[in-house]
Predict the structure.
Amino acid sequence: MEITDIDVVPISMERPSSYEMASGTIESNDSIIVRLHTDEDLTGLGETSIGLPELDTTFETLAFTLDRKVKPLLIGEEATNLERLLGLIDDLSWNTGEFTFAKAAIDIAVYDLLGKRADLPVYALLGGRVRDTNGVSRSIGRGDSDEVADKAIKLKEQGYKLLTVKTGFSPGEDLERVAAVRDAVGPDMPIEVDPNQGYSVPEAIDVLGEMEREYDVVNAEQPTVWWDFEGLARVNRNVDMTITADESIRRPHDVGRLARKEAADQVTLKIFEQGGLYTAQRIVETAASHNIACNSGSLHPFGVGTAAIRHLCVAKQNITHEIGYGTPYERFPDDIIDERLEMRDGEVEPPEGPGLGVTLDEEKISEYRTSIEFAV
């Protein structure tokens, strides 16, 4: 099954409201959809989503990489040779393992293609289901105490299983907002915080210690800068709550380094940052071998990427039950697929059908497609 063409489709959609966290503010969702065409008249769908620029990757450079570098490289290749395809993309960066966002789009499209060819859902290709559904957590961006408390109450009423309060702005402000959320939702609702690397090591130890004592915060995601594994280990030694590494984890060997330092109890999967489902599975397996759990973030994709996350999370025992994204309608007024991906009672399941189980709504693709001009 030979790759005959790859469509690279940049999509942008405004959010109803901005989403502020310590690392920046997001006003719109920018994703790249790919259609991977083959000589067997089968087409695989992929998506890669990017919020803020990461490792010199922007929406514009990602579109350029896929359209001008990856596409001509992969046309004519056997579509089922996923590891070879990802290796060819690695070669573009002198085998440094960059271009992870571009790899994710191709990876997801290949899994969709393989599932369609075999008439199996993607989760079956990932080892089959270990659970029927996943509970969903929801993050709350920056706002004053009344605002975040009001959001927390509404999210609890909607059935979310865990609330994540974005912190990392200043210790005093963060404590006020966590206190407001705890007062709003009561003692039984699990709360975690995500400072997005916003604390120094001493700040993290002091603030997280107070949060766990006073407000029963159960987890902190990436409290300190991504590259300082020694600093993260100091935090982990000095607080009782779970410490999760997010931005620190790009590749499987990062998990091994994390384990050697005893720097975290859990790692976050983000399939777009980490290069797709193939690499995410290796991260899950590496983490399991070190007795480190995994949770799942998202970068807030549209329906294609959301489906990929759901397939992965029902197929892996070592991924915790609450995943960090339920449906694009959590964040956006619309989606780009024919199917409506719902959350029911705080639970989600993967779409059924071959591959990812989703199809593009071509009218919505036309509506939200954006033009990116490349210099010749």
Observations:
- The chain has twelve helices and twelve strands.
- The two ends are 32 Å apart (CA to CA).
- The chain has two domains: 3-119, 124-348.
